[in-house]
Amino acid sequence: xxxxxxxxxxxxxxxxxxxxxxxxxxxxxxxxxxxxxxxxxxxxxxxxxxxxxxxxxxxxxxxxxxxxxxxxxxxxxxxxxxxxxxxxxxxxxxxxxxxxxxxxxxxxxxxxxxxxxxxxxxxxxxxxxxxxxxxxxxxxxxx
Length: 143
Fold this sequence. Notes:
- With 143 residues, this protein is of the alpha+beta class.
- The protein has helices spanning 7-17, 20-26, 45-58, 124-130, and strands at 27-34, 40-42, 63-72, 75-85, 99-111, 114-122.
- Helix 1 runs antiparallel to helix 2 (20-26) and helix 2 (20-26) runs antiparallel to helix 3 (45-58).
- The protein starts with 6 loop residues before the first helix and ends in a 13-residue tail after the last helix.
């Protein structure tokens, strides 16, 4: 079982090693995930594995580093850094072979020492820009 102070490190370790059984064991049977779009995905550990595998397939060399963890009761918030090369399909975008990096804020609520609710915030548009799927609009120069 994990604690609020260790859960993000445990998850990052499992994901970095592609230890799907280990990741499954970190998730509560009632696990849910909410991304930046605000839509909650339920379905227990299978939902967590689906999301983790999607990222791993898109960025097979991907790694996550946990930078800072803040806890309060059964809630842990982490600042993380993700990086990898897009050598698989990502959000409908064919593999580009380009490197991408992203800052992640992840909020986890634990129940019975396992991830019960996870909310993740990251800049998907920035990832799409880095892999060449979209470009950033030009900003008008300030006087």
